[in-house]
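Q: Study each token:
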Amino acid sequence: MSDVDILSDEEREAINEAMQAPDVSAHQRVLIVDDDRHARETLAEILSLNDISCLTAASGSSAMNLLETRKSIGLLITDLRMAPCSGLDLIRQVRESPMAALPIIIISGDADVKDAIEAMHLSVVDFLLKPINVQKLLELVRRELGIVG
């Protein structure tokens, strides 16, 4: 038998992901989108430490790619201020896509009333200001994913 690997890295990653989280039903992962790597990783760590599975993206285009390819995403958390695609631009793209009903939470350290009103018109679940109230975030995430506890 040869030692030739017939799986691509992407296929191996998908298999490992499925094997590590067999109890995660469809639409149980959170996609975190923020162009600030530290903010993105910190939020993912907070959720992971609370047994909430996460994926992360550094841009709106990366987020849309994940939303199209990963059907397990049940909630989107996005920063408002990102470049070149803002959080509001990303939400508009999601609302015009097959994932239009996806629940979305916006997080921002720099927002005004106009941003909040526009976000509400785009049917976001909530608009949280930084520094984030972790308990409030966890309550929202659990509620939207249908996690009891």
User: Anything to note?
Assistant: The beta strands are 29-33, 54-57, 73-79, 104-108, 126-129. Residues 81 and 147 are 29 Å apart (CA to CA). The chain has one domain: 24-145. The longest strand covers residues 73-79.
